[in-house]
Amino acid sequence: MNTVPTGVHIRDARQQLFDAAERILVRDGAGALTSRAVTAEAGVAKGVLHRYFADFDAFLLDLVLDRIARIEGQAVSLHRSAGTGTVTGNLTEALLDLFDPVAVAIVGLVIFRDELRTRLREATSAAGIPVLAEAGAMLAAYLADECEMGRIAADADVDSLALSLIGGGHLLFAGRPDRPDAEAVGALVNTITADVVQRRLL
């Protein structure tokens, strides 16, 4: 078995462990995720994980925070798309990017582990289920941008729309063997946003 040699930069070891955890989550689910499973999947010595993290929940906390940081990066791209293309198209692409297999599995992990959820609420300011809450905030901010630009109705309830998109999107992607395509996601987005998109023309 390969081991992480002494002197390997912490970021390299952390990423190796994160990648291993994500593979287990996607392949076997949250119930299979243990410290021993992660180190075995990563091909490192058992003590490597605890060299960098106080306990396994601390490792999982950083794993989820890393995914939340990616959502913040997606939020920048979505913000830049406001005013370009179509609202439906931009939201469809955002949901396809957001609900990749790893993200769907991480949401399941957050729901599965009470201690992790508690630590995440202490570490983040978002209310609701971590990851989904940040994703909802991202979509609400984008919809607010489009509202200011006059591409959706001025009285649109962007927070409720975002919640509907995140809830519907998660249900569409979770618990199924095949990944929904852009047409299926677009149909969901269109159903949720059709009213505010059409009324902006009135």
Please supply descriptive tags for the structure shown above.
202 residues; mainly alpha; Arc Repressor Mutant, subunit A; Tetracycline Repressor, domain 2; 0% strand; elongated
Describe it for me?
It is a single chain. With 202 residues, this protein is an all-alpha fold. It has two domains: 1-52, Homeodomain-like (Arc Repressor Mutant, subunit A, Orthogonal Bundle); 56-199, Orthogonal Bundle (Tetracycline Repressor, domain 2). The chain has helices at residues 10-28, 35-42, 48-52, 56-81, 87-98, 101-112, 114-123, 132-148, 158-173, 182-199. The chain is elongated. The chain starts with 9 loop residues before the first helix and ends with a helix. Mean pLDDT is 91; it is low at 1-8.
Summarize the structure.
The protein has ten helices and no strands. It is mainly alpha-helical and 202 residues long.
What count of structural domains?
2
Mean pLDDT: 91
Reading off the top of the CATH hierarchy, the class of the largest domain is best stated as Mainly Alpha
User: Rg, please?
Assistant: 19 Å
* Helix-strand makeup class: mainly alpha
The biggest beta sheet is recorded as:
none
How many H/I helical runs? Answer: 10
CATH topology of the largest domain: Tetracycline Repressor, domain 2
- Work out the strand percent: under 5%
* CATH superfamily membership of the largest domain: Tetracycline Repressor, domain 2
Number-wise, the strands total 0
